[in-house]
């Protein structure tokens, strides 16, 4: 039986394989640095380097949260924005994958 960690690693590698424009790796690098952020905060950080819409960022974060399972979502009240937190147990795995194989791309998006 394959462990959950191995499944997440496989999904994460596949997620980054199709990253043609660097947005995905950039979002993951941001989460490694700041540990938690809202969609608007991520969009502000990405828009300085990429021509990316808020909906694109929201879509990618939603995918990372639901399919990859490396983020937790928290909302104080119905009026506040959703805050996404990087799960502590996957920081080392994410760091290995993001900085491996395509290290030059990770440096340009960090």
Report on the structure:
- This protein has 110 residues and is mostly helical.
- The protein has a single domain, classed as Arc Repressor Mutant, subunit A (Orthogonal Bundle).
- Helix content is 60%, strand content 9%.
- It is built from six helices and three strands.
- The chain has helices at 4-17, 23-34, 39-47, 54-68, 91-99, 103-109; strands at residues 36-37, 71-74, 83-86.
- The chain has a three-stranded antiparallel beta sheet.
- A hairpin with an 8-residue loop joins strand 2 (71-74) and strand 3 (83-86).
- Helix 2 crosses helix 5 (91-99) and helix 3 (39-47) packs across helix 4 (54-68).
Summarize the structure.
The chain is mainly α and 110 residues long. It has helices spanning 4-17, 23-34, 39-47, 54-68, 91-99, 103-109; strands at 36-37, 71-74, 83-86.
Question: Which features does this protein show?
Answer:
110 residues; mainly alpha; Arc Repressor Mutant, subunit A; 6 helices; 3 strands; 60% helix; 9% strand; disordered C terminus
What Rg is obtained from the alpha carbons, in whole angstroms?
14 Å
Q: Provide the helix percentage.
A: 55-70%
- What's the assembly state of these chains? single chain
Derived from helix and strand composition plus strand pairing, the structural class reads mainly alpha
Annotation field: number of helices: 6
Count of extended strands:
3
């Amino acid at each position: 039986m394959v462990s959950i960690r191995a499944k997440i690693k496989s999904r994460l590698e596949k997620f980054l394989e199709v990253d043609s424009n660097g947005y995905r790796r950039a979002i993951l690098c941001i989460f490694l640095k700041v540990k938690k952020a809202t969609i608007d905060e991520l969009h502000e950080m990405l828009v300085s380097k990429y021509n990316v819409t808020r909906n694109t960022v929201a879509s990618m974060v939603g995918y990372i949260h639901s399919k990859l399972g490396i983020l937790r979502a928290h909302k104080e009240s119905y009026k506040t924005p959703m805050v996404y937190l990087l799960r502590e147990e996957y920081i080392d795995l994410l760091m290995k994958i993001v900085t491996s194989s395509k290290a030059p791309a990770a440096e340009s998006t960090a």
